[in-house]
Specification:
The protein is of the alpha/beta class and about 450 residues long. The protein has 19 helices and 17 strands. Helix 2 runs parallel beside helix 3, helix 17 crosses helix 18 and helix 18 packs across helix 19. The relative contact order is 0.09. Bound molecules: adenosine-5'-triphosphate. Adenosine-5'-triphosphate binds next to helix 4, helix 7 and helix 15. InterPro entries: AAA+_ATPase (IPR003593), AAA_lid_NorR (IPR058031), CheY-like_superfamily (IPR011006), Homeodomain-like_sf (IPR009057), HTH_Fis (IPR002197), P-loop_NTPase (IPR027417), Sig_transdc_resp-reg_receiver (IPR001789), Sigma_54_int (IPR002078).
């Protein structure tokens, strides 16, 4: 029997989930806060953590970092509201197994839990420093934004310029970095990706520059740092805005001198690397606020590339969707042929706050859930359907040039009862409220 640690502060929802999962054969320990979950994690073994993102004593991501620090392979599934999808997608990058947005269907949560507990599933852990072997297919896209992106990659790749890649989480910044490396003269040499946000401050110097055996407690053998590992190739610094000020200084020195000294060594090693950095923060602003060193900023930013949001790559939505469907079919040994018209329409209208990563995740789950031979709305999260409906309603309403007049009439007719007026107009209350605000109507 698998042990599930449930962390959810909504009492009714907590109870409901506990009962449901117990019925499905899980042993559930229900907690309501991070603090209580922390105690449970210390006192018993769990096979899976199912946690809400927003808890009374902090964010579920705190729990995620703590579990990851324990270096256990317990999969963590985050439960979120629609407005938090972006945070949840970021949490996946930090090592969460998956997320489900509330409200979810019972089969949806069971599918995610089952897949997380499958023994064959390799642990999805935060990439601390991987010599990235990403050989996945790169979709270039046909939209104007994608064409511009490809053009920038093509132009900058053969140079040795430092590139700063900026874009929202999940837009494909690491993919862009890898594409630059693959098209560069360094392509035959290593591409080393380092998640600067995941390196504990105390060991950052050893991670970047290596150390010699015996230089500190725990240094039981010589270790090569990322700079040396990337020699002749490309060093990709992901989430560069997360580096501590002290580490920024060390990094700048190494980049300027092109030499590194491993911790505990007296010898300097020359390195020949190209640096590509990525961030989803406004680093220029961080410089103004004194959080990021200006000299390092300029050193990294010889050429800047902005990776567009998926929403701004409208023409590519289906291209990406088909690509993810194909890889989900391969991974899950399924043979789903495509998407229903309705699903395509929803995909085209949805705003994808978690960008390409969100789409990949969503399609993989839909592929797992779908029982027929094409993906239908049945396999999509409810929130996505709701978003589609709202959008359709808004479009319907805005088609009328005289929508302000229509609203006024409906309100008069219903003696200013917004619920009834919304019904007459064929929209829901929220849309009506938004329109009232938009037209600055005083009721
Ligand atoms: N051009 C692309 N072609 C195919 N898949 C892509 C492409 N870009 C991104 N992806 C997919 O999206 C996922 C997220 O990409 P990536 O990790 O590069 O994003 P990111 O912008 O670096 O995210 P973060 O800011 O959270 O680090 C990848 O795992 C991959 O599945």
């Amino acid at each position: 029997m698998f042990n599930v640690l449930l962390v959810e502060d909504d009492i009714a929802f907590n109870k409901m989930l506990e009962t449901f999962l117990t019925k499905k054969g899980f042993h559930v320990t229900a907690t309501f806060s991070i603090e209580a979950a922390r105690k449970e994690l210390k006192s018993a073994t769990h096979d899976l953590v199912l946690t809400d993102l927003r808890l009374p004593d902090g964010e579920g991501t705190v729990l995620l970092s703590e579990v990851k620090l324990l270096k256990t392979a317990i999969p963590i599934i985050m439960m979120t509201n629609y407005s938090d999808v972006k945070t949840a997608v970021e949490a996946m990058k930090k090592g969460a197994y998956d997320y489900v947005s509330k409200p979810f269907r019972p089969d949806e949560i069971i599918a995610v839990i089952d897949s997380a507990l499958k023994p064959s599933k390799p642990e999805v852990s935060a990439k601390i420093a991987t010599s990235s072997g990403k050989r996945a297919t790169l979709i270039e896209g046909k939209s104007e934004a994608s064409k511009r992106l490809s053009e920038f990659i093509r132009l900058v790749a053969p140079t040795d310029m430092s590139v700063l890649i900026w874009g929202e989480s999940g837009t494909g910044k690491e993919y862009v970095a890898k594409a630059i490396h693959d098209k560069s003269l360094r392509a035959q040499h290593p591409f080393v990706a380092v998640d600067c946000g995941a390196i504990p401050r105390a060991i950052a110097a050893s991670e970047f520059f290596g150390h010699v055996k015996g230089s500190f407690t725990g240094a039981t053998m010589d270790k090569i740092g990322h700079f040396e590992a990337a020699n002749k190739g490309t060093l990709f610094l992901d989430e560069v805005g997360n580096l501590s000020y002290e580490n920024q200084i060390n990094l700048l020195r190494a980049l300027q001198e092109r030499k590194v000294k491993p911790v505990g060594s007296t010898m300097e090693i020359s390195v020949d690397i190209r640096v590509i950095a990525a961030t989803n923060e406004d680093l220029g602003q961080a410089v103004k606020e004194g959080k990021f060193r200006e000299d390092l900023y300029h050193r990294l930013n010889e050429f800047i590339i902005e990776v567009p949001k998926l929403y701004d790559r409208q023409q590519d939505v289906l291209l990406f969707a088909n690509h993810f469907l194909q890889s989900a079919n391969d991974q899950l040994d399924k043979n789903i042929a495509g998407f229903s018209e309705e699903v395509i329409e929803i995909f085209n209208n949805y705003n994808w706050p978690g960008n390409i990563r969100e789409m990949g995740n969503l399609i993989k789950r839909a592929t797992l859930l779908e029982k027929g031979n094409i993906i239908t709305t049945e396999a999509l999260p409810r929130e996505l359907l709701r978003y589609g409906e709202l959008n359709a309603q808004e479009q319907l309403l805005s088609k009328h040039d005289n929508e302000k007049q229509m609203i006024l009439k409906a309100m008069e007719k219903t003696r200013f009862n917004k619920t009834k007026a919304a019904k007459i107009l064929g929209v829901d209350r929220k849309t009506l409220y938004n329109k009232i605000k938009q037209y600055d109507l005083k009721f």
